[in-house]
Every structure is written in C-alpha cells, then in structure tokens.
Amino acid sequence: MKQVQAVTLCWVLLLVSRLGARDGFPEEASFYYGTFPPGFSWGVGSSAYQTEGAWDQDGKGPSIWDAFTHSGKGKVLGDETADTACDGYYKVQEDIALLREMNVSHYRFSLSWPRLLPTGIRAEQVNKKGIRFYSDLIDALLKSNITPIVTLYHWDLPQLLQVKYGGWQNVSMTSYFSDYADLCFEAFGDRVKHWITFSDPRAMVEKGYETGRHAPGLKLHGTGMYKAAHHIIKAHAQAWHSYRKKWRNKQQGLVGISLNCDWGEPVDINNPKDVEAAERYLQFCLGWFANPIYAGDYPEVMKDHIGRKSEEQGLDMSRLPEFSLQEKSYIKGTSDFLGLGHFTTRYITERNYPSRQGPSYQNDRDLIELIDPNWPDLGSNWLYSVPWGFRRLLNFAQTQYGDPPIYVTENGASQKEHCTQLCDEWRIQYLKGYINEMLKAIKDGANIKGYTSWSLLDKFEWEKGYTDRYGFYYVEFNVRNKPRYPKASVQYYKKIITANGFPNPREVESWHLEALETCSINNQLLAAEPLLSHMHMVSEIVVPTVCTLCTLIAALLLMLLLRSQS
Ligand SMILES: *[C@@H]1O[C@H](CO)[C@@H](O)[C@H](O)[C@H]1NC(C)=O
Ligand SMILES: *[C@@H]1O[C@H](CO)[C@@H](O)[C@H](O)[C@H]1NC(C)=O
C-alpha cells in the first residue's frame, strides 16, 4: 500500500511538471454562447433499485442487490439497504410533479426485472402488479408530455438466476434476458420508443465479478468480468434482434445500450507511449462493449494485451473469450443509438514497471491513472470536474463508431458527504461547464440527440449507501415519508432547458443569481424538518400513549371508588 502511494505521489509530481510545460487550451477556457439544435431532448435519470424501495411488495422477487445488502455487515457503507430507498414505488405522482417542475422532455428510468418476473424466468411467472406499476408510470409520464426512456437492466438481476445458474457467468442468461426484454416490448412498447438494454455494464461486471464490491460480490480476478461481459454483449444483441423481428415494424422504436466511460488524456501528448496508453484506457473502457456492437469484435489492443498476459501466466487460452464468426456478424450493428454516460477525466501514462499481482483487469491494461490536483473535487472520491474531457469523449465516440446518434444517458455530480446545503453552487458550475462542452461537441459535428442529467433524486448509491448525493432534489431519508427538497441546480437546469442552451452572457448570469436566491428559502424549510417530524411523532405516538394512560388511570380510579363505596 505504502509503495503504491509513493509511486502515485511520484507520478503526480511528474505530471505537474510535465503539464506545466504544455500550451494552454484556449478553446477550452472560453465559454460558448449558443443554443442546441431544435428538438434536442433534455432529461434526468434514475434507476429502479436505487429509488423504488418496496423491495418485497406486491409480488416482487428478490434481486442480487437485495441479497447482497441483506447478507451481513461491511458490504455497504453504514450497512444500508435500499429496502425503502426513496419510496419511489409509492410516490409516482409526486415525482412526476418534480419532473414537470424541471420542464424536462424525457425521463430515463429502469425496470426492475424481479418486479416483473419474480424468479427471473418468463415461462415460470409474470407479476401482473409489476406490469401494472410500470404501465401506470409510463401513462402518467406521457400524460405530462414526458418521453419515457426505459432501461431494462440497471444491475438488479433476479436473485434466483444468480443462485441457481451463476448469474452472468452462465451463457443461458442471454435467453432469460431476451425473454424478459420481449415481455417488456410486448407490455410497454406501444408507448415506449426508446429502449436501453444495459446500463454501464463495465462497472457492473468489474465491481460485481472482479473486485466484489457490488452484487453478486464475486472476486474472479481477471476472468469473471470478461466472461460476464461476453454474455451481456450477446444478451444485448439477442434483445435487439428480437425487437427487430417481432416489434420494430409495429412499434417503430429504437433499441440501444448505455456505456459509461471517463475520458483518458495522455500525460504527455508528445510521448507515443502515453498516447498509446490513453488509447488503451479508452478501448478497455468504451471499446470493450462498443467495438463488438459497432465493428463486430473486441478491440485489437484488448485481444493483444489479455492474450499475451494469459500466455505469460501459463494459460493455454486467452482469458478474454472469443466470438465465433457467426456471433460477430450477429452482434455487429445491434444498436440504434449509442448511449453514453460520462462523469470525469483521468490523465493516463504507461506503466513501465512490472506488476506483481496475478491476473486482473488493472494488470491487463498496463497503465496508470492520475488526476490533476488542481481539478475541483466533488462528493464522490473519484469525481473531479473536468468539462473539456466530455467534449473529447464525444468526439472520440463520433469518429470511432461511424457517427452514431448519441444520447448522453448519465452525467452529473454528487454532493460532499453529509452536506445538507440546497445551494449547490458547485453542481451549477459542473452542469454549466459540461453542457457547454457538449454544445461545442455538437458544433464539432457530433450527432447528439439528447442529454440526461444524473439524477432526479438523491438515492441509494450502491456501496456508498446514502452518503453520495447526486440528486437535483434533496431527499430527507431519515424522515418517514422521505420528503424531497429542490436544490438550486433545479432552477438553473430548468433555465437551460427552457432556453435550449445558453443564449447570452447577461441572461446566463441572471439564472445563476435567481437559482441561488430561491435555495436559501428552501434551506430554512429543510432546517425545520426535524422539528416537523418531531411534531408528527408527538401526534402519532405521544398523544395515543397519553390517552391510553388516562383511560387506564380513570378506570383504576373508578374501580377504587366503587370498592370504597361497597
Ligand atoms: C447454466 O444454466 C442452465 C439453465 O439454464 C443450467 O442447466 C446449468 O447447470 C447452468 N450452468 C452452470 C455452470 O451453473
Ligand atoms: C419548457 O421548455 C420549452 C422549451 O423546451 C419552452 O418553450 C417552455 O416555455 C418551457 N416551459 C416552462 C413552463 O418553462
């Protein structure tokens, strides 16, 4: 550990000295005033497990995340679960009112597979109440003129598929997933025209099957995640083909995937080794999933590196599975749009000292990730605000994958821990900077159709519990009915949406001031919340208790009175 820190420190110092020698980026420093193309879609996002709660209600089966969070201490910060989360299952109307307040054109949310299919398998059991719940949600959104963008899989695999068959380690997940997808197309496809098969599968397999920090908590170093990803890519392709064959003619919708990736910038752009390392960073992150889907196979650099290391490790086959020729052509071209999630940037340099660990994803990439100590840091310990990286990633995706239609499916910033400030100045800066870089990418030629800010509410943040707050709306989790309070960024984002961009300096400056004015009033309301909930407690617990006691005492007195008289 010490050694790693020393090495990292060395690199940071080196980084600072090398960066100092660089020219500035003039186009990045300047703000671009202008508007987005007409019809550009603005939205916010969320996911089922992080917000719904009602984990065992109305026929829902358990997911791997229910099992993971219930399985004992130390899995999640504060041993939290999402058993109730934001109570989103019971607050559909209230949350749609929040979406209307923001004036969004779309809402991205995910369906809980085990809420629809309690055992995971369509042939076994379909939960009608689950269908009803999402059907009503979709209707309510459409009634408010909000387009639903629906994710099929945001990490909550039905637990029975994990226990019985090994989850994504088993290739049979592809057909269970495809059957599930087909049910969703059938039940909701008359109204849903934008489908996302998988959300951020890279993080899902890395944390679920390599480091074990996410459900299902497996540590199959250097093998499990490649296998899980292999099956996920096949499952995605199968669902896409099923839509094309059975539903596309009738429903006229789009099916894509959502891939998250940070930008990787070479530490020294004049050093070919650093440039290669940064390229490798992107291919191991975005290319891993996007290359099979857009070009029919894993990136060459992944095949080379993992193949060579597997050989060195004495294996007779690469740890990276291979697609057959037939599979390659089946998978190629199976995305109607590219969903991109993006949060931050890293400087990348080659790792030129040998690693002593065994097989692992980290080891396979041969690179070191660094941060610039001058970047503003946000709530999550990995998240720094580096807006210019966003434009570069969007341009990279445009040129790598043949100018696909792009939907930004996630981008946002979390609040520093335990901070109950609704005046989230720093989120406003993040939003403004990142959305502006996206506008520049559109001017560069990227075909970006929409933007989803992450996320509508503060919510269960996986292994971080409730400590990282990504929401536009603050959720008071300690109060029984989980009230929501708007942060200042709500007003600011609404202004961007309504103006469809950044019209001119004077106006944009006034948004900032207005947003910060409203939040101080809301801060006072939030501060009064403990008092209010205390008053609830008085009326709900203390009053009945006192009444019961009074009745008992009265009865006792009456008895004594009767006795003394007789
Ligand atoms: C994979 O799933 C199938 C059921 O679809 C099961 O029969 C098989 O035993 C599973 N394989 C493993 C290794 O668990
Ligand atoms: C919502 O945004 C649209 C532009 O997308 C704008 O025309 C409309 O006036 C806005 N509505 C409100 C209530 O701000």
TrEMBL record:
BP terms from Gene Ontology: carbohydrate catabolic process; lens morphogenesis in camera-type eye
EC number: 3.2.1.21, 3.2.1.45, 3.2.1.46
Reactions that this protein is recorded to catalyse: a beta-D-galactosyl-(1<->1')-N-acylsphing-4-enine + H2O = an N-acylsphing-4-enine + D-galactose; a beta-D-glucosyl-(1<->1')-N-acylsphing-4-enine + H2O = an N-acylsphing-4-enine + D-glucose; beta-D-glucosyl-(1<->1)-sphing-4-enine + H2O = sphing-4-enine + D-glucose; beta-D-glucosyl-(1<->1)-N-octadecanoylsphing-4-enine + H2O = N-octadecanoylsphing-4-enine + D-glucose
Any one cellular-component term (Gene Ontology): endoplasmic reticulum
Classification via SUPFAM superfamilies: (Trans)glycosidases
Signal peptide residues on this chain, from the entry's feature table: 1-21
Top EC group: hydrolase
Active-site residues, record numbering mapped to chain: 410 (nucleophile)
Pfam families xrefs: Glyco_hydro_1 (PF00232)
GO molecular function, one term: glucosylceramidase activity
Swiss-Prot/TrEMBL keywords: Glycosidase, Hydrolase, Membrane, Signal, Transmembrane, Transmembrane helix
Residue ranges crossing the lipid bilayer per the database entry: 541-562
Family per record: Belongs to the glycosyl hydrolase 1 family. Klotho subfamily.
This protein's name: Cytosolic beta-glucosidase
